[in-house]
Fold:
Amino acid sequence: MAVVLKGDKEIENIPSIKRKALRINLNENIYGTFAEIGAGQETVRNFFRAGGASGTIAKAMSAYDKDFSDAIYGIESDNRYVTQPRLERMLSHEIELIEDRISRNKHPDKLFFSYANTVATIDFAKKFKGHGWVGVKFQLDPLEDYNEIVLHIRFKQTDARLQQETLGVLGVNLIYGAFYMNDRPKELLKSFYDNLDQDQIEIDMVNFSGSRFMYVDNRLMSLQLVKNEMTDAVMFGPDGNNLLPAQVLYKKNILTLRGSFRPVTKVNMDMFEKAQELFLKEKTVKEDNATFIFEITLANLRSEGEINERDFLDRAELLCSLGQNVMITNFQEYYRLVEYFAEFTKARMALAMGVYNLVQIFDEKYYRHLSGGILEAFGKLFFKDLKIYLYPLKDEESGEYITSETLKVHPRMKELYKFFKYNGKMLDIKDYDPEILDIFSRKVLQMIADGEEGWEEMLPKGISDIIVEHRLFGYSRRRFAKQN
Structure:
C-alpha cells in the first residue's frame, strides 16, 4: 500500500499500481484485451510486470500505423484518430473478437473486458501538450451485458516519456476501479488519480453507461470532476450526456449567459434570447458556427455552504429541458472564463449579463491576487474579440431602468469604465420586456418554498410543469393542496 498525504487531510492508504494490477491478474475470471494507440503500451506493461498476467491478458496490441489501424477498425468519417468515436469503435471491435474466439461453454465464469486508449502525446515543438481518449468495456456477470467508462484526458507534463508513464498508471486505475469500485462511482472517479498528481493530467469529460450504471447521472459525475479539481470546466448537453468542451468550443463563436438558474426565469430567457439576436447580427458571427452556453460557477453552487447535489440536478433538469448546453466552471472571475474559451477559439465571443454582474466586474477586490490588479484582468478580458450585452436593472426605489449609460461605478473606475464603454465593447439590450424586470430567481424559490401562488407565471413556458411533476426545489403537492 502506498501512503499518500494530500494537503492537510488525513493520510490515505492507496494501493500501489503493482498491487492493483496483481489483484486483477490473480482474479481467475477477469480476462480481456488491451489496444493502445499513440503512447506505447504503458497500461498493459504494468500488468505484465506485476506477474500472473497469463490468465488475464488475452491480447495486447498497438496499431500505430494509420493504414494498419484503418484496416482493423475502419476509417472514421473525419479521418481523425484521437476521437471518442475511434475509441468506441476500438472497444466494440475487441469485445466482438473475444466473444467470437473464446468459448462461453468452456469458460462460463469469465468476465470479459476490453481496455483501449487513443492518444497524442506532446509534439516535438512542445506547443501542443497532447490529449487522448481512454475507456474500458467490461462485464461484472457473464450473463449481463457490458458496462462502459469513457473519459477524455489532457496532458500537463512537457515530456513524452512522462506522459506515457502517466497514461499507464491511469489505465490501471481505470480497470481496477471498473471491477472493484463500480458500486461507488464517486470514489471510483477520485481513484483515477491514485498514485498520480493533479499537475500531471487533467480529466475533463467522463461518461458511465451500462446496466450497473443505470442509476448514475453523468451530469453529477461532471460536477464531481470540477469539485475534485480534476478540471476547471465541464459541459453537458440537453440529453444529459457529458460533452467535451474542446469539441463544442473549437473555432466557434461563443455566447455565454452566467447565472444561478435556481430556477431559470423569464428574465434569464429574455436576456439570453435578446443577446442571441444581437450576437447573430454581428458581422463576424455566423449562425451555423455559433454555440450558446448557460454557465454556472462552482462558487454559485456553494453559495449556501456545501454543494447540494439535488439542487444542482434540479437546475440542470430545467436547463436541459429548454434544449441548452450547460457548463459548470471553477471560474469565479469572468476574465478566467474568457481565457478558457480563448484556448479553443479566436472567433468573436460575447457575454450576456445583468447590470449587477457588470458592477462586480469593476470591483477591484476580485483582482487583488493579480500583480497587475484590475488592469491586468481587463487586459485579459477585453484583449480578446469580446463583447458584453448588458441587460438593464430596474431600481426598486426610483423605478428607473439602469443601463450602461446611467450606471454609476466607483470614482476610481469611472475613466476605465468609459474607455471600455465607448470603445464598442459594451452594448445595451434595448428591446427587453419591462413587465418582467421585477422577477428574481431567489423570489421565485422562496415562493415555492412557502407554498405561495403565482410563481408559475414568472417562469418560461413548461418550466413550472416540470417543477411540479418532478417536485424540484422542494416543491410539495401536499403543502399546496393544504393551503388551497
